[in-house]
Design brief:
The protein is an alpha/beta fold. The protein has two domains: about 280 residues, Divalent-metal-dependent TIM barrel enzymes (TIM Barrel), CATH 3.20.20; about 40 residues. The strands form two sheets. Strands 1, 2, 3, 4, 5, 6, 7, 8 and 11 form a nine-stranded mixed sheet that branches. Strand 1 and strand 2 form a beta hairpin. The radius of gyration is 20 Å and the shape is globular.
Length: about 325
């Protein structure tokens, strides 16, 4: 991290609820000779590894290769490859249940529920016992290849306090500055998550879909300075630019943003479809140029969601998105 945990605490204590935190640099990809470099003119371009969900091998090792082949030097890591690397138990299939689509008997439904509960219990027990050394080893493997992990997405507000501690321990071991999660509507959950973020000196950054608007984060920001935004500006456009444009959102809230997600979506009036970059209504170039002009240091995270063309794959398409950003920032 660019700030120590002691410095984080000073910054957080200085920020009253509802007032933006100082715009801290949240990335710092360590470049190695011959390694990737997706830091373009001061703007860190990353990708969420969800972008590679269609690739056949979902291991942490394979994911790293996808990242490198895409030309990325920083990422938001999904929890699955990280936990699998650390030895997470295989998920149960929930009982026999008959053939797909066939009605289940009450006995089969009970069997399925019991299997699911057993799998959830086993996962929780594993999470509370696993050594963080596995995550530190994973971080080293990525860092040695020239890739920093600025965020991990695994946190759920429905987790127990013990699981919260696990997630923030994991984020610290991976070198993350923030952990991302979906934006809950419950104020109690927002405050609880924010309090943990303050305790652990790692931001909690909320992701938005079509509920995105100029004011959608107001309650989260007011409840804790540990709560930040992981706004998806593609979804924001598809929702109708409620309350202002993406540029206006950035100008108003930049001090409370840990990272932004980028995708090219049509506006609500045009159908809201996900499209190859440069063919939709999301002002990606303007967003990146604004980040560059203002020297805002939060990363811009590519999220591949448009249909992959025949003959291509997620790695090739993510690489195109990274190149689009490089050209926009040239």
């Amino acid at each position: 991290m660019d700030y120590t945990r002691r410095e984080f605490a000073k910054l957080a204590l200085a920020a009253a609820p509802g007032i933006g935190l100082i715009n801290t640099p949240l990335t710092g990809s360590r470049l190695i000779q011959g390694g990737p470099n997706s830091l373009f003119n001061g703007v860190q371009i990353g990708a969420i590894t969800y972008s590679f969900r269609s690739m056949p091998d979902q291991s942490a090792e394979a994911t790293l290769q996808y990242v490198l082949d895409s030309g990325l030097s920083a990422i938001e890591l999904m929890g699955d490859p990280a936990e699998s690397y650390a030895g997470r138990p295989a998920s149960g299939r929930g009982g026999r249940g008959g053939r797909r689509g066939a009605p289940q008997t009450p006995e089969q439904q009970a069997e399925q529920r019991a299997a699911q509960q057993a799998a959830q219990t086993a996962l929780k027990d594993w999470r509370l016992s696993v050594s963080m050394d596995r995550y530190r080893t994973l971080r080293k493997m990525y860092n040695d290849a020239g890739v920093s992990i600025y965020a991990v997405k695994i946190l759920s507000p429905n987790m127990s306090d013990e699981e919260f501690e696990y997630v923030f321990n994991m984020a610290e071991a991976l070198g993350c500055t923030h952990t991302t999660l979906e934006l809950p509507s419950d104020e109690g959950q927002l405050k609880r998550v924010g309090d943990f973020a303050m305790k652990r000196k790692i931001y909690a950054a909320y992701h938005t879909h079509l509920q995105g608007s100029m004011t959608v984060f107001d309650r989260a920001f007011a409840l804790s300075p540990g709560n930040m935004a992981n706004v998806d500006l593609g979804h924001y456009v598809a929702a109708g630019n409620v309350g202002g444009t993406p540029i206006e959102f950035l100008q108003k809230h930049h001090a409370r943003i840990s990272s932004v997600h980028l995708k090219d979506r049509q506006s609500k009036d045009h159908g809201a479809a996900n499209l190859p970059w440069g063919t939709g209504d999301t002002p990606i170039k303007e967003i990146l140029q604004t980040m560059k002009k203002n020297a805002w240091r939060f990363p811009a995270t590519a999220e591949l969601e448009y249909p992959i063309p025949e003959g291509s794959d997620a790695v090739q398409e993510t690489k195109k998105c990274v190149q689009y950003c490089a050209e926009a920032l040239a």
